[in-house]
Design goal:
The chain has one domain (54-189): Tetracycline Repressor, domain 2, CATH 1.10.357. The termini are far apart. It has 192 residues and is mainly alpha-helical. Helix 1 crosses helix 3 (40-46), helix 4 crosses helix 6 (101-111) and helix 4 (49-75) runs parallel beside helix 8 (129-136). Helix content is 74%, strand content 0%. The protein contains 10 helices and no strands.
Length: 192
């Protein structure tokens, strides 16, 4: 295996392992075994498991950012009302969040862990810069769209985890309930 293949195998292993057992139980031995490589590569490539976890989170964030950039034009038909456009985008984001149990569980476990730092939060702003540039135009001047965006993701991903754990059903009623929690909280920030 080449180094880039080993790196990707370890990132995939981190996503899988943390989703299954959590960060504290994700030992270097378990991560390496799940990747099918020697434990030494975690240190050689990443410098340690914390950096591997961060790289895995950035990998998932980049994937989601690219997905959003692809979804935005499809969701934002100018013939729709603001609420209909937001609902259109919400449904697509919901589908993304509930379509991959491991990525969703990993994302939530890492995001709410001690490993997530303010420095990484700044890196995330760079990852989502193109997305933010597109959605900024929908909101009133002076709106902290980064905060709103993260609030929406918090609600969507934490609700998706509940669906993926079979705590709540994945049906139209659940989606409508979550949408009805989100939209009233953010509609005041949309341009008229």
């Amino acid at each position: 295996m080449e180094q880039r293949e080993i790196k990707r195998a370890l990132i995939d292993s981190a996503i899988h392992t943390i989703a299954k057992v959590g960060i504290d139980s994700a030992t270097t031995k378990l991560l390496a075994n799940n990747a099918g490589v020697n434990e030494v590569y975690i240190y050689r490539i990443f410098g340690g498991k914390e950096n591997l976890f961060k790289e895995a989170f950035v990998f998932v964030d980049n994937d989601f950012s690219a997905t959003l950039l692809d979804l935005l034009p499809k969701a934002y038909s100018q013939s729709l009302t603001t609420e209909a456009r937001f609902k259109n985008l919400f449904k697509r984001v919901w589908k993304y969040a509930t379509s991959d149990k491991e990525k969703c569980s990993f994302f939530i476990r890492y995001y709410y862990s001690r490993c997530y730092t303010s420095k990484l939060s700044l890196e995330r702003k760079a990852i989502y810069a193109a997305v933010m540039k597109k959605i900024d135009t929908a909101f009133e001047r002076g709106t902290d769209t980064w905060w709103l965006f993260n609030h929406i993701l918090d609600v969507v991903f934490s609700s998706a985890v509940k669906v993926l754990r079979d705590e709540i059903p994945d049906n139209e009623e659940t989606q409508e309930n979550i949408f009805n929690l989100l939209y009233p909280a953010i509609k005041q920030y949309f341009k008229n």
